Amino acid sequence: MITRFNKKFFQVFVFLSLFFALADLASAKIIEGETAPNFTLKNLEGKEVSLSEFRGKFVLINFWATWCGPCKIEMPSLETLYQRFKNKNFVMLAISNDMFGEAVVKPFVKAHKISFPILLDQRLKASNQFGVVSLPSTFMIDPKGKIIGALYGAEDWATPSNILYFENLLK
Fold it and tell me: Of 112, 120, 102, 47, which Cα lies nearest the Cα of 82?
């Protein structure tokens, strides 16, 4: 039986744990111009994928989750961007932070007709390396592996100005 004291103690413990975890992550925030940290995660087919495999290409990394409202809103525009530039020197990696991994991500991907690569980060290894504390968080990496941009929050990736940015970047 959980007593009122135990419940209160548990709530304080959880709060403090989250506070210190987030404070620690915030100090690890990525800075533009730095080399992106390498990671290896599994895709939805169970194959291991490393960021280093894409050296020589521009890479857009989007951290997201199926339970994240703003993430769901921006997914169609990410698909549009991917379809437009997938045959250029461009790769998109969507990294899911869903705790239940493939079990919830696969149905979401199928229902929303997402065709870009999805990686699973259930233990938040890559997310922590990138200092992600909110979703969605998106990072742009140049062919040399340097971070050239970071965006925290949802974006409409299919606007004319965003399409023009990527057209100029990928010339």
Answer: 112
The two tokens of residue 79 are 């698909």
The crossing angle, in degrees rounded to 10, of helices 160-169 and 69-85 is 50
Torsion, Cα 107 110 106 137, to 10 degrees, reads: -110
Contact 26, 131 (CB under 8 A): yes
Query: pLDDT tens, 76-120?
Result: 999 999 999 999 999 999 999 999 999 999 999 999 999 999 999
Contact partners, residue 86, CB within 8 Å, separation at least 6: 92, 116
Amino acid found at 57: K
DSSP at 58: E
What CATH number does domain 31-169 carry, 3.40.30.10, 3.40.50.720, 3.20.20.140, 3.40.190.10? 3.40.30.10
Q: Are strands 40-43 and 118-120 parallel, antiparallel or unpaired?
A: antiparallel
Closest CA to 36 of 144, 152, 170: 144
Tens of pLDDT, residue by residue over 28-43, are 567 889 999 999 999 9
pTM of the model: 0.83
Where are the strands (E) in 44-170, listed by range?
48-50, 58-64, 90-96, 118-120, 137-141, 147-152
Domain residue spans of the chain: 1-30, 31-169
